[in-house]
Fold this sequence. Notes:
The chain has 266 residues and is an alpha+beta fold. The chain has helices at residues 2-39, 90-110, 159-168, 184-209; strands at 61-72, 76-87, 118-130, 139-153, 173-174, 177-180, 213-223, 231-232, 252-265.
Amino acid sequence: MAALHRVALNFGSAISLVSISLVSISLVSIAAAFIAVAAAPPVLAQQPPAAPAVTAAPQVRIVVKGEGSISVPPDYAQISGGVSTRGKSVKEATEADSKLMTDITNALLRAGIGQKDIQTSHFSVRPIYTQTDPHAEAKLTGYEVGNQVNVKIREIGKAGDVLERLIAAGATNVGDIEFLHSDTSRVLDQAREAAVADARRKAELYAKASGLTLGRVAWITEEPSCAPPMPVAARMAAAAPAAPVPISAGEDTLHVNITMGFDLTH
């Protein structure tokens, strides 16, 4: 009976050992599976394919030139006048020059020209050499002094009278008269408006003829095309004229040229 009990205990122990072994094997398998899963690289979610890039339609544009002009009378004139004097010394030549220029300045003031509108534009002193013998060196025989002023004539109708007074006062050289505009930018603005209107008219015409619609202005450039003032010849001798000098200001035509780019749509 005791032997049977021992067999039963031994059998029970064997069963227990087998159960423990199976549990151990299961735990090892689970741990190994967990480690394998943890070590495996993460699986990324599949991304949808990127949409193909849409190429922008080429921009349609038209480029035209515009011209504008405006004719206006000048509002003031400018003239230059002065003297050249000679003397054996610088002092002698300068004193003679100063006397004549004082007479000229006083004559201009009496003609209604303001002191601020009389400006010295040139003054020079140069030696004079004379060579009597072609085989000898030239000798210093004196000096020449030159003095020139620019005169602004705000009342163009007085231009002829001013010329007469300059010559009568002893001016030995009188320059060209220029008829000018005191506010050229304001005058050109009118020509710019006409140039823009001209360019738009052409663009609309081309767009309509091509079956397109004119869009916004893309850019504008202006070409430097303002003509300089044209001088009127007025060089005279020192003798006073017998009759009043006829001076006509007329009109100046100022031009503006531009280039404009417009967008076009179908």
